[in-house]
Design goal:
This protein is an alpha/beta fold. The protein is 38% helix and 17% strand. Bound molecules: adenosine-5'-triphosphate. It catalyses: ATP + H2O = ADP + phosphate + H(+).
Amino acid sequence: HLPQNHDNVEKTEDEEKEDRAAQSLLNKLIRSNLVDTTNQVEVLQRDPTSPLYSVKSFEELRLKPQLLQGVYAMGFNRPSKIQENALPMMLAEPPQNLIAQSQSGTGKTAAFVLAMLSRVEPGNKYPQCLCLSPTYELALQTGKVIEQMGKFYPELKLAYAVRGNKLERGQKISEQIVIGTPGTVLDWCSKLKFIDPKKIKVFVLDEADVMIATQGHQDQSIRIQRMLPKDCQMLLFSATFEDSVWKFAQKVVPDPNIIKLKREEETLDTIKQYYVLCNNRDEKFQALCNIYGAITIAQAMIFCHTRKTAGWLAAELSKEGHQVALLSGEMMVEQRAAVIERFREGKEKVLVTTNVCARGIDVEQVSVVINFDLPVDKDGNPDNETYLHRIGRTGRFGKRGLAINMVDSKHSMNILNRIQEHFNKKINKLDTDDLDEIEKITN
Ligand SMILES: Nc1ncnc2c1ncn2[C@@H]1O[C@H](COP(=O)(O)OP(=O)(O)OP(=O)(O)O)[C@@H](O)[C@H]1O
């Protein structure tokens, strides 16, 4: 039979890059609280002989009262893991530079917003803090945090340096904080002279890993940085730290302190893994129905290789009376966030999604994950990382989970075998025609 992946055409590099920004935005939109971690923060101080400060409360930071009020109004009780170390460093006198890396949801944005707000002098009507974001949408998200945290500073204003935000020539910006994308910020600082870069006290480069994925952003960011005064505080944040990010970070942030927080390791130890042998898509669907008929599944996520399969499966499951949510690539990020939110709230019991759409998304794991198609990379090799991220659990929240893989050809059996070998974990065969056997898997 024909592989059903004709709508999974290879993505252009630009699309891949847009994806990264979209994934990052999606994670922000669906995140309502901190990611918990048991890992230790690694700190590398510029001056290893200076004492290392860490705070357990926001009071210890001696913030301006309006700012402390802003922090509490956001519902923060104490600094997050990364904030414990990052905040005293960022608020120290004289200002110190910082490069910080930790996964999405660990409190980076809140940390640098706090740093900007504590250095800004709202009485001075010119830009003093400059923050670069990879896209307009991401800039808006950061802007919202600034507005929330700074809400007890009535005179504090925010300007967005993004495409389409046209000012009159010769105008000067009076807003104290500017947040924007590199191209527009560069224009505003140089050609158009809306901003005097020499007056910037804090420079933030957010989402460095997403940033450098876009052509031109790296150069533009460096050119902006070169215009800033020597004593300007430079801060760079990234969710990941591959070599390219690190090289870029060192160009943008001289003499940095460095803070890293490792991602919580995921494991397959508490997961029961099965595979079901089928001959085609219809048999996979039948197997799925049999499983649903035999055991009670509170909520499941089902992953398909293509949009077409995902759409088809969602429709078939609906016909069977399931409440199904569909997450698909053509949806806008905001729509996707809304779908995930509804699923989280339990309004739908099954979430069908494509591999691509779900990649990199930190959805709190549900107890049953079904790989209707196994995850493969664009060369057709097993995508072990995705497999692990999808069904793995972090030790801390080690609830037991169930993963069922649908296998429908020699090729996919081969992929499955390679996944087993990679993790050195056996995936048991499940006969879905045998209801007793299915029932046993929940014991
Ligand atoms: N100290 C804190 N206490 C409680 N909640 C916090 C604290 N710091 C941040 N948060 C909340 O946790 C969530 C994640 O924080 P934040 O956005 O700063 O993380 P991040 O590392 O920048 O992740 P992302 O890049 O996805 O935005 C947000 O909803 C934020 O309001």
